[in-house]
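so my prof wants the structure for this chain in the tokens format not the other one, which i didnt know existed until like an hour ago. anyway here's the sequence
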Amino acid sequence: MENESKVLLILKMMLSLVFNFMFVAATVVCVYNFTLRAFDIGRQFSKELTALGTEEPIEITIPDNATIDQVSALLQEKKVIPNAFLYKMESVLKGTDDNFKGGTYTVNTLMNNNELNAALRASADHEGEVLVTFAEGLSLANMAEYLESSGIVTAAEFLNECENGEFDYEFLNALPVRENRLEGYLFPDTYYISENATAREIIYKMLDRFEEICNSDVIARVNDLGMRLDDIVKIASIIEKEVRLPQERAKASSVIYNRLDIDMSLQMCSTVLYVLNIRRDRITEADLQVESPYNTYINAGLPVGPICNPGWACIEAALYPEDTDLLYFVVKDVEAGEHVFTSDYDEFVNAKIEYNQNY
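here's what i got, hopefully its the right format
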């Protein structure tokens, strides 16, 4: 009996050790994943604050055998990143803190850390190519202006190819005939583009990327929702232009779905601004009456097409709206980009009055 008791005691101790080890390991994994997610959210937020325009390219010269300390300090010095320490920490966590290749590279402030790491490890494979970053939320017209200002193709060439070029993709073949037919489908990302690239070659790169992003899993989710992919892209484009805080995207998405469910006009200012092709914080009553199938103040349902080219975060929000009864949102703090969300009309009106008083 005494021996059996000792055996049981040893087994209990071993089980306790195994349990403690598994608990610590699980905790480490959770902390690791949470830290990476926090970096991703913070990086995306800071990126969105600068994504209102396209940034000029910045040349970075990396010395041979450079360390992560040298690279992060150089990136901060050139104002490519806001904080060298955070870049270094994320690189260490993701295992991308070494193997930098010496040389001169072209980067810009719209690139996230993954894109920076890829660019700073680029080799002669990209000789004769330029790095181009399209920010989330740009329209076809914005992209055209950017490409022309970068000296790659003229705006007219790009827009003409968008309008008249033939591109055989299943997601495009399902679209109705409309102006700006590629709006929403040129995926915003960072691309290596040949210095002599044509507008058609650039468009193919972006459509290929959209096809890669909107894969079979996305299509399955679209079908589960009883929607069309085009509807999802329209919703995502509105979310992209209406909100900029990551935590508000799914809420804004729920407002759109809830209004559609009860046949309530969407009344999204971003759709009117798209028609007017202007950028401003406030629109007039006259603006709201502009005749256009994009104007969601005078037309029921979704606009006739997307109003910009949304990034993955907003596409994801359109696919997975929060489960709420929200029907309204209005800006609470312009600088922070924060909104008041509510299902109560009186609360919405009061928030709107407060916004008008403050701004």
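also thought this was worth mentioning. Residues 245 and 336 are 8 Å apart (CA to CA).
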